[in-house]
Every structure is written in C-alpha cells, then in structure tokens.
Write a structure and sequence with these properties.
Helix content: over 70%
Distance between the termini: 39 Å
Number of strands: 4
Oligomer: single chain
Length: 361
C-alpha cells in the first residue's frame, strides 16, 4: 500500500511539474506574440495614425539596437561566464563603419573630403577610408575589423587563461584606450565630435517619416533574426559547452575540451552582433562619438543583461528595452536621481533576484 501511495504521489508531482512547465511555455509564447504585435505592428501603425511622434518611434528603434547588443553581451557573459567591459567598443566599430559610408555620401557638392579632415591639413581621403565609398565595402570592412580585432584580443587573452576580475580590468582598459584613440583628431575620424550631419542613406531622405518607419521595422526584424539565431546557438552543442565553461571550466578542460577555442568563438560572435547593432543605430540617431564607447557605456550593457536575467536571451532583450525606457523617463523628470535609481535596481537584482527581473525561461 505504501508503495502505491508513493508512486501516486510521485506521479502527481510529475504531473504538477508538467503543468507548470506547460504554463511557462504558454506564458513565454504569449510574451513573444505581444512583443511582435506591439513593436512590429502597433508602434509603426500608431506613428502612421499620428498617435505617437516619429521621434518616439525612432527612440524605440534605438532601444532595439541596444537589445541586439545586449544579446551579444548575454552570449559572452550570461552563457560563457566571461564579464566583458569593452562591448560598447565593438558596437561603435559598427556605427563608425556605417558613419564613414554615410559621411562620404553626404558631402556637399564639390567637396571630396569632410571638413574635419581639411581642418587637419588633409587634401585627399586616407587610404583606410577608400573601401567605405560603397555600402558593401563599408559593411564588410566594419565586420571584418570587428571580427579580426575580437579574435586577436581573445586569442592572446584566453590562451593565457586570464579570466574573472583580471579579464574585466583588461577589457576596461581596452575600452578606455579605444576612447582616447578615437577622440584624437589625427585619427581622421572626427575626433571628439565624432561623425554626424547625415541627411541621406542609399539616396533616401532620413528626415522622411516613411524612411524612419522603414528603418525602425528593419531594426525590429533584425532583432528577431539575431534572437532566433542566438537561441539556436545556445541550444546546440556549442551552447551547452559554453554553459559548461561558465559552471565549471576546469572539468571541461579535464574532459579534453579546448576551452580557449570556445571562448574565442563566442567572444567574436558577441562582438559581431554588437557591430551589427551599431550599424543599425547610427541612421536612427544621426551621430556617433567616442563617448559611446567609453567604459561607462560597456558597464551599462552589463546592467541591462543583469537586470533582465543572465543566461536568458529574453531577459537580455527585456532588460535593454526596460532600462533604456526608464532612462528616458527619469532623465526627463529627475535627471540627477537616475544613477541612484539604476544602482538601486542593480543591487536589488543581485541580492534578491539573481535570475533577473523577467524570470522568463
């Protein structure tokens, strides 16, 4: 009798857990449907009907770019356990790549070089600007530069098994060095003023409402594509190994895995995702400066992922969107209080909600 009672209770537990799991799946699917309805259809329609301003739609487009970058951070930090503090640098490499192409195609009639080059005594385009005359060359060069730099950096760092706080410090130093380099006028990248004054993209007027809506929709679709591909990656054997590295790197090394190869690969993938986000960001904001790649910007990306939930792609997206929406609200109402509010949210999340605010699995 006792055996049948035990089996019955165990079966009840299994059925209860199955119902809970099924309920979570339904909740997750409902959240995804609501997201697509609101962001892909609702906001553009509201803008077309005049219910919201075009600037508001563009603002959410920039937030979606941040969400794409947050997915890359989550792959590196949330799944592989590598705290990177230079992700904003890769974001800006993509933005600068798009900005160089747009700068050359927005020059006033009769000019062959931007004003900031003429002010530095240049009479012709530097050689490294030449591939950015075409859109294809700009995309290829920006992604190639990002991938090569991330690979070389990761190769020398991970091969030496530098991790934890030491890795965070080195990436922080990299972000600071990049910020100082791009701020110099001698680099022919606009100095501290960056790249700006864009009116046209592929011959389309960026001030046009139709163009702004089109760029926004394309950004949301790219967010969905990056999310889908990243989800496939995390569920593959590669993703399982990343999780194993995060949980116990020494065990994987003992089992014969080349941990450095996986770390380098995910670091490069995350960097390329950030570069794509940067390319989409620039046409919607109209300016890119070295200030976007400083250490503070990279730390903010970590905060998005931490608040949304590490090791959870839905949490990374939700965290990026929610934190930036709160940023817009509080910097308008009480700008002095925002750093304290953000810090308080982060502390509460770390102490009491280690899985993040969303709890969506």
């Amino acid at each position: 009798m006792h055996m049948w009672t035990t089996l019955f209770r165990r079966g009840g537990v299994f059925r209860t857990r199955g119902k809970q799991h099924f309920g979570m799946v339904e909740l997750s699917a409902l959240a995804a449907i609501l997201f697509w309805i609101i962001f892909l259809a609702g906001l553009p329609l509201a803008c077309r009907l005049g219910l919201i301003e075009t600037s508001t739609l563009t603002l959410w487009g920039r937030y979606c770019c941040f969400a794409i970058a947050a997915i890359g951070v989550d792959l590196i930090w949330g799944y592989a356990g590598i705290m990177t503090m230079c992700h904003a640098f890769f974001f800006c490499l993509g933005a600068y790549g798009a900005g160089m192409y747009m700068t050359l195609h927005n020059l006033p009639a009769g000019k062959i070089i931007p004003d900031f080059m003429a002010w530095n005594g240049a009479e012709s385009l530097p050689l490294f600007w030449l591939p950015f005359r075409s859109a294809f060359g700009a995309v290829v060069c920006a992604l190639t530069a990002t991938g090569v730099f991330a690979f070389l950096f990761g190769y020398f760092i991970f091969r030496r098994r530098i991790k934890g706080v030491f890795f965070a410090i080195i990436t922080q130093a990299l972000a600071l060095a990049a910020y100082l380099l791009f701020s110099r006028n001698e680099t022919m990248l606009g100095g501290s003023n960056g790249l700006t004054h864009f009116r046209y993209l592929f011959g389309m007027d960026l001030y046009s409402e139709n163009v702004k809506i089109g760029i926004y929709i394309f950004t949301v679709l790219m967010l969905g594509l990056v999310f889908f591909l990243s989800g496939k990656l995390t569920k593959s054997k590669f993703g399982k190994v990343l999780t194993g590295i995060r949980n116990s790197e020494s065990r994987l090394r003992f089992a014969g895995y080349r941990v450095e190869g996986y770390q380098i690969a995910v670091f490069v993938i995350g960097a390329l995702i950030a570069a794509v986000a940067g390319m989409l960001y620039l046409p919607q904001t109209g300016i890119i400066t070295p200030g976007r790649m400083d250490v503070k910007a990279s730390i903010e990306m970590l905060v998005w992922v931490a608040l949304g939930g590490r090791g959870n792609l839905k949490g990374a997206v939700a965290g990026a969107l929610a934190v930036n929406a709160l940023y817009s609200i509080f910097t308008s109402l009480m700008p002095e209080a925002w750093p304290y509010i953000l810090g308080a949210l982060y502390i509460v999340t770390v102490l009491y909600m280690k899985n993040g605010l969303t709890m969506i699995k």
